[in-house]
Amino acid sequence: MKQAVHFGAGNIGRGFIGALFSNSGYHVTFVDIADQIINQLNEQKSYQVILATDQQETTTINHVSGLNNMTQEQEVIEVITNATYLTTAIGPNILPRIAPLIARGILERVYQTDEPLYVIACENQIGATNILKEHIFDNLDEDTKERLAGKVFFFNSAVDRIVPIQKNNTSLDVLVEPYYEWVVETEAVIPHVEGMTTVKELAPFIERKLFTVNTGHAVIAYLGYLNGKSTIDKTLADEAIVNQVEATLKETGDYLVKQYGLDKEEHGKYIQKIIDRFKNSHLNDGVTRVGRAPIRKLGPEDRLVRPATEAQKAGLPYTNLAKAIAAALLFDYQEDEEAVKLQTMIKESGIAKVLSEVSNLPEESEITQEIMKQYDALK
Ligand SMILES: NC(=O)c1ccc[n+]([C@@H]2O[C@H](COP(=O)([O-])OP(=O)(O)OC[C@H]3O[C@@H](n4cnc5c(N)ncnc54)[C@H](O)[C@@H]3O)[C@@H](O)[C@H]2O)c1
Ligand SMILES: O=P(O)(O)OC[C@@H](O)[C@@H](O)[C@H](O)[C@H](O)CO
């Protein structure tokens, strides 16, 4: 049986990427640090993916197993030597931590076989696979790096499927939205995976996804949190917030249309489709999950700051994006490590300094001034 090794047996790992591989005839080895999930995968050898619809259609995902990357390093190296695909859905901040073990697996592999290995990071981050590749290369000697040519391929990708935190965390089963899209950047003909699309240039796809789905999601999460709402769909019952989401996505949309020559009307329909996906009440998707890790989300290349800086460069409006950034700065959820850290930073240094450190926005910039104005208004 063909082998896929997937790092991160969490919501998107089990609910999307792992499920696609299994449905395409692969055995999927999930690699994670969560022993409970690993043990259950090895005992049950299957789980269910349940669609968040009235009918709750269910698919059984077979041919799965698990390994712990902290305690079973040798076994992980062995599956890497035998795999066709190596994918991740672990969170952008974790990529540097798993890279040394992946490097050891690749090192072993390239001296054993010439069979190609395809490495794809499935994270909400522009160029995530390139970033993972850099971390892997930091752990390889020059000789091995040269040997990788023609044997190990690194492709960036964009992944889209809303998978909330699961209500029952003692079960492997995963509730997911029906919609999904996985776009991988390559011109090569690669082994077929049902549900994966390949494109020559990923930039328009990842930016359209990140700056519509994830920007819109972030606006709802941060405004919902500030208004005491628990979930994304409940937040959208507030018409004023729906209007705010639309106004923000109009700003990212104007940038995307200008940058990539998208059809304005088509893009408008895409925005409405995304907002309808957010309204799915079966998902019960918490604002604190969607708003998680605000320091990452305020990064210069991420869903809020990058479209604002790009809009400014293009002479387009960005005040609604500035409001979303201000709302993110007010996300003080105590159970989120980054939210706690961000609030401490704000207390110690003030907004302008934090934006310069976290978002790479100069303290005197027009964007920073606008964010500060919006911050005071929201506060
Ligand atoms: N959930 C979604 O709707 C969704 C959709 C598209 C993309 N994504 C992206 O997919 C990635 C994963 O998101 P998720 O929602 O599945 O998160 P998640 O928290 O459900 O899953 C992450 C998994 O990684 C594991 N993990 C954490 N640190 C680890 C380490 N050092 N070594 C091994 N395993 C480790 C965790 O135990 C967990 O099982 C993120 O980059 C996210 O942005 C998520
Ligand atoms: O995963 P994050 O933290 O980057 O973003 C939170 C959500 O916006 C995200 O997980 C979406 O549900 C997902 O990107 C939909 O495809």
TrEMBL record:
Domain Mannitol dehydrogenase C-terminal per the UniProt entry, residue ranges: 202-378
Family matches, as Pfam families: Mannitol_dh, Mannitol_dh_C
Reaction(s) the record says it catalyses: D-mannitol 1-phosphate + NAD(+) = beta-D-fructose 6-phosphate + NADH + H(+)
Keywords: NAD, Oxidoreductase
Residues that bind NAD(+): 4-15
EC number per UniProt: 1.1.1.17
Protein name: Mannitol-1-phosphate 5-dehydrogenase
Source lineage: Bacteria, Bacillati, Bacillota, Bacilli, Bacillales
Name of the gene encoding the protein in the UniProt record: mtlD
